[in-house]
Here is the input.
Amino acid sequence: MPRKLAKINQSVEKTLQIIEIMAESRQALRLQDIALKVDMPASTVLRLVNTLVSSGYANQDPITLKYSLSLKFALIGSLVSSQINIRNIAHPYLIELSERCKESVCLAIEQDMEVVYLDVIDSPDGMLKITQRIGKVAPLHSTAVGKIMMLNYDSEQLNKFIELKGLTALTPNTITNKEDLIKELKKIKGQGYALDDEECELGARCIAVGIKDYSGKYIGGISVSGPITRMTMEYIDTIKHIVINTGQTISELMAYKE
Here is the structure.
């Protein structure tokens, strides 16, 4: 039997009830109608609905004063859907890529300015099992997939990332200054793939490519990782077209068109 949650935020619970009622309605609702449906005082509903409006999650008609949910919920639903579906769509291609390259293959997204691994196919010898796991987070600036995701950043976002996360040196090869990072991102954009050359972990090298959606935005990335004894620069040059093609195939399945 599942353990009962010890603490529940009642304001959040009430807000979710209001959202569900508004979502189920086919038309905008008056404040009194919402209050009646959720069985709450109108003053409480007003406070919570106004919070939704100020945050962009609801709209109020200036003439009728009725409330309706905004398309911001559709955006969130789309983002959640893409994160869930991308793993299902990419998984068979990750297996094939691992078999062809004989190394570990990962699928990752960006969340809160960090890399989050959604899927991992271990290499035949299992060498990287410890360092890469589903749900694990990693820095953007020191990982190949992370640098791919940073191609979405404009100058202001890049400055914010550096301010909040910093450019911490994980190895002697990690990029630790803004100028070098910008130079690296330009290089990645031009060549179509990113490298982690012992920047996150000594003894390991990685190549990554991005996955785009219909808008052309990078929504994830796939990487092939292995020990430097096998993942030589010559070997990476040999397999890079396989990795790039796999990324393009998955992007097309995510509705991306050049």
User: Anything to note?
Assistant: The CA atoms of residues 180 and 186 lie 10 Å apart.
